[in-house]
Amino acid sequence: MEVSSDQLLAARSASDQAELVNGSPSLLKTAGQAPDQPVRRPQAAYEASLLTQPNVTLAGLSTAVPEHSISQIDAAQLAVQLGVTEKYRKSLDTLYRRSGVERRHSVLLETSSGEQDRQSFYSPASPENERGPSTAVRMERYESEVVELGTRAAAAALEKSGLPAEAITHLVTVSCSGFAAPGLDLALFDRLGLPGGVERAHVGFMGCHGALNGLRVARGWAANDPTAKVLVCAVELCSLHHQYTENAQQLVANALFSDGAAAFILQQSPQGESGCRLISQASYVIPKTGDMMSWKIADHGFQMTLSPKVPEIIMEELKPWMTAWLARHDLTIADIQSWAVHPGGPRILTATAESLDLPTDVVSHSEAILASHGNMSSPTVLFILQRIQQMTERGPTVMLGFGPGLTIEAALLDW
């Protein structure tokens, strides 16, 4: 059922209002805990198949966030000033508390403490300022901030991988939260000292699964050239698109999104050499779901819509498609050791686990990143993968994202 602003207001209580939009709160019970059972290795056919394809590996995975952050409680108080009338204030507080987010980072924050003086980009709503900064003003801020955050993530990836900038042969950048030309891709040449002959591609405006699309572009280069060293960098500044609104779907977006960056190197390694290996990728555009999720340019920032029907569609469509894809690699859902699922919201995570007939703790890493960082759009799934690596879990891993289309993007990794 679509949820309108009128329905949100008519709900009997603040709890009912949040339930309409966000569903039942997700379970955060085992985030960060490695499974008790030993790693279950897949059948021999899968292991043998790995020897027939290039050993494309992901190295140097690194992340970066803006210096300052804000608690979700304080963010709700700040949001009240930005276009939400008194009649919505109680429901807004409930919505923020039940979003699964505890803290978020933003390039707009000037301090991590204090009250109204912590940011100056968004002025309080008024008759003269009903919708906030124009898109042009927001894009000016994007251009001034995106390079710094992207450079931090990319430089860290180079250092962690042990590769000098001169070794990079290809560059892939990913972003859906802003546009500029020359943009982040060209700026990284100067900031990192990349050779002028580096081939580049930009993956733009593909939404929360954009990093998986960037990974696919990088794989095309790395799998076909054993000398390729592909730097991938995803950066999003979603906090630039806060909407002065009482539209239910956009209120949810305001409660979830944040800023962050991630980067890594994709390259071929000798067969048998250990590392995070990229096995396969797949994409599925679910028929007749084009109106379920959107990300569109408006006069006052980019506007997100997310139908409450999305979790229901995931419940119906994900398992049959996932089962068929994994079967092509002699795998079953039970063979997957870890799941890096993009946290579009608590209901989407719950729907993913239930669709796959898995316990809810399989999305505990996703819940933990949602809680500590919010939804950073495209880099988020890489934050989750980094967390999985840090927990020393080994075995087949699926990265999963959902975006406009409605589209499912997935990647199969192993190490």
TrEMBL record:
Residues 109-123 have a biased composition (Polar residues). Keywords: Transferase. InterPro entries: Chalcone/stilbene_synt_C, Chalcone/stilbene_synt_N, Polyketide_synthase_type-III, Thiolase-like. CDD domains: CHS_like. Residues 280-413 form the Chalcone/stilbene synthase C-terminal domain. One of its GO terms (biological process) is polyketide biosynthetic process. Residues 55-269 form the Chalcone/stilbene synthase N-terminal domain. Belongs to the thiolase-like superfamily. Chalcone/stilbene synthases family. This is Predicted naringenin-chalcone synthase. It comes from Planctomicrobium piriforme.
